[in-house]
Design a protein that fits this description.
It is elongated, with a radius of gyration of 26 Å. Strands 3-4-2-5-1-6-7-8 form an 8-stranded mixed beta sheet, sandwiched between helices. Strand 6, helix 15 and strand 7 form a beta-alpha-beta unit. It is built from 18 helices and 8 strands. By secondary structure, it is α/β, with parallel strands linked by helices. The two termini are about 25 Å apart.
């Protein structure tokens, strides 16, 4: 094109919202990922589906945007029948509902936040060989430390919670809001990492009868580590060797259950009804993250629904007739020096150039990677903090047309 702009793609996520069972939103921090997840949830409910949005981010943005006081590990229903949503002017965009006034048709919207400790406790209870062993593990100091601090635990527990919700059969559409991209990659890797750990030689050694009884751990970790543990025990008041022995003794018999569950989570993510929505803003760093993630999904054989570019500047068409400038002149009849008109023209040109540059950046960042569809969500006048703002974004995601 002669003006140097980039042709915008035409696309939407309507089919994914209507057909997918799992939608995972991923992206760099600060790009509007949580808001996108909530808007997808609203669009799913508007399409007549019983939809649940699960957030890993402990921030309260999701609850506030949905009109809820707070979120916890139990799903909470969002009121879509009250005046706060029915009074919205959707300009004819009914977000998938066959009702012309845009009212929900059988769909529901629910939201919850991951409670990592509660989810891990349920996992232990499910796979423990007895109630006594489950109670002993939950009371073990090593377990309490691992369950709250071990790298990747949050991501694995999110996958475990996802599978629990999937197994319940209660939901048509599950939307998972992940941490920023690099952590989201941990989210993607978590089932395989758990599976690899459970197949590892160290764990197999520790699970031997003598080790599980706590009699051989000192030989495994070495004299230096044993001395360190004894010193650490004096400082913290914990007998680390004893706690480790008890932990692995009670863990015995749970290996197969954990391994099977990790494999089930991987299989769920690989299904064609599980899709990833990558979220970015039109700046190079988050766009590079988006490219990296799309490339990784393609390598893994996982399914990308598409990419959402949030807060992109609307294009400003050039006006060869000069009518826009004439309107500025008419609005400033007392500007004899022409400074206001000149300033307005410069501002208009700056906005036009910024919009074109953003589209060039997006096109360049996504070059060479498969993008099923791209939806541009325009920059809004303020932050999204209620259902009205979510409805605006949900309409764009469903139709591909900014409102």
């Amino acid at each position: 094109m002669t003006d140097g702009s980039v042709q915008e793609p035409v696309g939407d996520l309507a089919d994914d919202i209507a057909e997918a069972h799992v939608l995972v939103t991923a992206g760099a921090g600060g790009v509007g990922k949580t808001t996108t997840a909530a808007a997808l949830g609203l669009a799913g409910a508007r399409a007549g589906r019983r939809t649940l949005v699960l957030t890993i981010d402990p921030a309260r943005r999701l609850a506030q945007a949905m009109g809820l006081e707070h979120l916890d590990d139990e799903p909470r229903q969002v009121d879509l029948d009250g005046t706060q949503l029915n009074d919205l002017d959707l300009d004819g965009a009914n977000l998938g509902s066959s009702d012309p006034d845009g009212a929900p048709e059988g769909g529901e919207l629910w939201a919850m936040m991951l409670d990592m400790q509660t989810t891990f406790d349920r996992l232990i209870e499910r796979h423990a060989t007895s109630r006594e062993r489950a109670d002993a593990i939950r009371a073990n100091r090593v377990y309490r430390t691992l369950s709250s601090n071990l790298s990747g635990t949050q991501e694995y527990m999110a996958m475990e919670r996802l599978h629990e919700l999937h197994d319940s059969g209660e939901w048509d559409l599950l939307i998972i809001d992940t941490p920023p991209t690099r952590s989201a990659l941990d989210f993607l890797d978590a089932p395989r990492r758990m599976s690899s750990f459970l197949e590892g030689r160290l764990l197999q050694l520790l699970m031997r009868p003598g080790m599980a009884a706590g009699k051989g751990i000192g030989r495994v970790v070495g004299a230096g580590a044993s001395a360190f543990m004894r010193v650490a025990g004096k400082v913290t008041g914990m007998d680390l060797l004893e706690d480790l022995g008890e932990f692995f003794r009670n863990f015995e018999g749970m290996y197969a259950g954990f391994k099977e569950r990790a494999d089930q989570v991987i299989e769920l993510l690989q299904e064609s009804t599980s899709r990833f929505v990558i979220v970015a803003s039109p700046e190079p760093p988050p766009l590079r993250e988006a490219h990296y993630f799309l490339d990784r999904l393609e390598q893994e054989g996982l399914h990308a629904a598409g990419i959402v570019i949030n807060r992109i500047r609307p294009e400003v068409p050039r006006d060869p007739s000069g009518a826009a400038i004439d309107r500025v002149v008419e609005a400033q009849p007392d500007d004899l020096s022409g400074e206001a008109v000149a300033g307005a023209v410069r501002l208009l040109d700056d906005v036009r150039n910024l919009a074109a540059r953003q589209r060039r950046d997006v096109a360049a960042a996504l070059y060479g990677v498969t993008v099923p569809t791209r939806v541009d969500v325009p920059l809004l006048g303020g932050d999204v903090h209620d259902l009205r703002g979510l409805a605006t974004i949900a309409s764009t995601l469903s139709t591909g047309k900014p409102r």
